[in-house]
Write a structure and sequence with these properties.
Radius of gyration: 18 Å
Largest sheet: none
Low-confidence stretches: none
Distance between the termini: 58 Å
Strand content: under 5%
Order of helices and strands: HH
Mean pLDDT: 81
């Protein structure tokens, strides 16, 4: 019985982690759409600046 509870907790944690990563991916997609891939790549290489 204890093993079942532990694996359920594990699955819940993995789902939370997956949702968090999905959120990051969505945010990244939005950033790429907004700035364009080349601009985003350039801005990742340079120190952080607020877009004009």
């Amino acid at each position: 019985m204890k093993k079942t509870i532990a694996s359920t907790e594990f699955i819940v944690r993995m789902n939370e982690e997956a949702n968090r990563l999905r959120g990051l991916a969505v945010a990244f997609d939005k950033a790429i759409a907004q700035f364009g891939a080349k601009n985003l790549a350039a801005s990742l290489k340079t120190p952080c600046k607020t877009p004009a």
